[in-house]
Amino acid sequence: MSKIAVALLMIVPVCTFAWPGPPDEPREMLAQAELLYEAADFGKSVEMLLQADELLQKLPAPLELKASAKMQLALGFMGLNNNDRAKSYFLELYKIDPNFRLDTQNLAPKVIALADEAKAEQNAARCRSIVDEAQNQLQSGNSEAVVKLIASNSSNCPAISSLATKTADLIYKDGMEAFRKSQMTDALKKFRAALSLDPTNEMAGQYADLTQSKIEVTAERSLIAWRRDFSAGDFATAVRDFQELVTVSDSKTLSDIRQEYRQTLSGLADSWKRACSSEDVETMEKLRARANGLIPEPEFGRDILDTMQGCLPTSCIPTESRLAMTRIDKRVDPEFPPAVISHIKNLNVTVRVKARIDVKGNIAITDIQGGDPLLYSGIREAVNQWKFRPTLTELGARCVDTEIPIVIRSSN
Length: 412
What we know:
Layout: H1 2-17, H2 26-38, H3 42-58, H4 63-79, H5 83-96, H6 109-139, H7 143-153, H8 164-180, H9 184-197, H10 202-231, H11 235-248, H12 251-277, H13 281-294, H14 302-305, E1 317-318, H15 321-325, E2 328-330, H16 338-343, E3 348-357, E4 363-369, H17 376-383, E5 387-388, E6 391-393, E7 396-398, E8 400-409
Parallel strand pairs: 1-8
Antiparallel strand pairs: 2-5, 3-4, 3-8, 6-7
Helix pairs in contact: 2-3, 2-4, 3-4, 4-5, 5-6, 6-7, 7-8, 8-9, 8-10, 9-10, 10-11, 12-13
């Protein structure tokens, strides 16, 4: 038995002192410190944790990693029977992560008790800080900031709820100021906010009802004015009516009005397309200006307005041959085989070439009439090489339909 005992005692120092050198990465350091803690080597565990904690404070490390370091340090100092240092790290833990959850099943009751004590102290300190901040905001008249503080902290800091009545009074006064300036929507919002903080504020309740009634009357009056001006085609005045409606009307009314705007805008777009097809530039410009004057909000109906641009008529301009030929840049005379020339000897022949000149000045023959069909092949080959300058109109380059007479004269 004595030999076995000696052997076991010899194994312990080997496991304790054969630890590898300290790693540089905080996550690895925490892992090794945890192993040291489990081996009850609390001193070395704390030594490594202090290094890791210092390193983590200098790095943009995840909150979970920083909280883990604080937790392990608290446990390490409790292992060293230094409860004051342990509590200080529990305080730091709950400062950086107030919602940190302990693994109560694997921790001793004294650890849980010390952690709960530190959490309670940290929460109390945080609550005092929040209440002080809220009071400073109240003194500065910043009621919105106080409302946000109350809403986000009332569950974990009940003391802040004591400021609800004072905050409600301040918001009520702001609402009265807006009411006197006829800023009814803003006034109603403030009266309702005051009521949500202090349901017993009777004046806020009465003025909320009064303001709501005024808004409804204004909305009805503005809607009647908008329908009158819109139906009369006075779109500029209707836009001003609409802008007032936005501040007082409900979402359904505004949605219905916007739909009417879109229907009218679509009708103008259809008329613009018809004017485009008939190349009525003057009407197109008037319709476009009317559509721009119609829109009640920036970017409203942009998808419809975009269809009223870039008119591209599909028809070509009928043009006399004399005018078409003034734009020719390149001309190639036809050539015929000797047999064809002999066939038309001592004759004057006129061949009428119907052609289309596209927007780039290229010509395409659509029909050839008159004269002798024996001439058509040579004429087609020559005319297809002609080049014209594009025909430009107010709507841009246009294709041209024309008929060009080609006279063939032969002599001895």
